[in-house]
Design brief:
This protein has 366 residues and is of the alpha+beta class. It folds into two domains: 211 residues, Endonuclease III, domain 1 (Orthogonal Bundle); 130 residues, Alpha-Beta Complex (Nucleoside Triphosphate Pyrophosphohydrolase). 44% of the residues lie in helices and 16% in strands. It is built from 15 helices and seven strands. Strands 1, 2, 3, 4, 5, 6 and 7 form a seven-stranded mixed beta sheet that branches. α1 packs across α12, α3 crosses α4 and α3 packs antiparallel against α9. The radius of gyration is 24 Å and the shape is elongated.
Length: 366
């Protein structure tokens, strides 16, 4: 991996890429008004999420939380509700914590990468993106799209996720960033990776820097980056007990940290071995302090979390005995189908709630 990039090559890369970006950049709401706050929120939302998915969430989020102060003043539960469906909810929790810190320390977002990295949830990439786009700081960025573009331009072989490779990639990115237009250059590099230099089917004929690309010269644009070893995917079966009592349903709030932290759900448990789904439903309800009689399957949903493929079953259960208590959860509540819209649920749990609503209307159960 090269330690030093040829200056003339780098200058031509900047020229060609910035020229392309001026006419091909996608219109997005955060680019229309790139205030530091809007850039920060957009970059956090864009972590591991596609631009087209983020846009409507960003617009709703900005309408409700137009300033750092508005976000800091809002209850976390409301922030999570506006984040619902985007996934990776630790991003929302960190965003809220960081907004409160900013509001208590002058109300202005830090402008340098080092200071930005002191904020919860802001790593090297996000700090570089905010500093360059919002504050015109010559800070590099390195994400999956940028790594792929650099690997192909410079024919970088091997596992690029190792510590040594990442260090070298950051050094390369730092040499390439345009000193006068760092924000535009970084966005252009990311946009190229997202729109043209895609993983499986790069559109080399449309690439503004193909004349600088070693992978294109070799006729092997998809040979790099080489795939990293991934842990095997495991199959998981979960059951949520949709416990009904006098027309209301039991919801439980997960602990503030960890997977789906702070979100509400129908009490949920993971099947152990060959347990029946009804047994797992009873065990899930017991986590919230109640005993139930499973009645009918409402829905089954498949979703993925990291390296797990989860099949989630929602079992409608009649309350039998016991008084609901938080137990393994942070809080519990009884809610009608209509009231469930007030609670922030994960995407699979929201789908269970919608299936319950449809079932109750179709069969006139409640």
């Amino acid at each position: 991996m090269p330690e030093v990039v040829d200056p003339a090559w780098a200058a031509e890369l900047r020229r060609a890429l910035l020229l392309w970006f001026e006419t091909h950049k996608r219109p997005t709401p955060w680019r229309e008004a790139p205030t530091p706050y809007r850039v920060w929120v957009s970059e956090v939302m864009l972590q591991q999420t596609q631009t087209a998915t983020v846009i409507p969430y960003f617009e709703r989020f900005m309408a409700r939380f137009p300033t750092v102060q508005a976000l800091a003043d809002a209850p976390l539960e409301e922030v999570l509700r506006y984040w619902e469906g985007l996934g990776y909810y630790s991003r929302a929790r960190n965003l809220h914590r960081a907004a409160q810190w900013i509001a208590q320390n002058g109300g202005q977002l830090p402008s340098t990468p080092d200071r930005l990295r002191e904020l919860p949830g802001v790593g090297a990439y996000t700090a570089g993106a905010i500093a360059s786009i919002a504050f015109n700081q010559p800070a590099p960025v390195l994400d999956g799209n940028v790594t792929r573009v650099l690997a192909r331009l410079l024919w970088l072989k091997g596992d690029l996720k190792t510590h040594r490779a990442q260090k070298s990639l950051w050094q390369i990115a730092e040499q390439l960033v345009d000193a006068e237009r760092p924000g535009d250059f970084n966005q252009a590099l990311m946009e190229l990776g997202s729109m043209v230099c895609t993983p499986a089917h790069p559109r080399c004929s449309e690439c503004p820097v193909s004349h600088l690309c070693e992978a294109y010269r070799r006729g092997q644009p998809t040979a790099v980056p080489e795939p990293s070893r991934r842990p095997p995917t495991r199959a998981v079966v979960d059951v949520s007990a949709i416990v009904e009592r006098e027309g209301r349903f039991l919801l439980a709030q997960r602990p503030p940290d960890g997977l789906w932290g702070g979100l509400w759900e129908f009490p949920r448990a993971t099947r152990d071995g060959r347990e029946s789904l009804e047994t797992v439903a009873r065990r899930a309800a017991a986590l919230a302090g109640v005993q139930v009689e499973p009645c009918t399957l409402v829905a089954n949903i498949q979703h993925a979390v990291t390296y797990s493929k989860i099949r989630l079953y929602g079992y409608l259960c009649r309350w039998a005995s016991g008084e609901a208590q938080a137990g393994a959860y942070q809080a519990i509540a009884w809610a009608s189908v209509e009231e469930m819209t007030r609670y922030p649920l994960s995407a699979p749990q929201r789908r269970l709630a919608e299936a319950l609503r449809q079932t109750s209307h179709q069969k006139g159960l409640f």
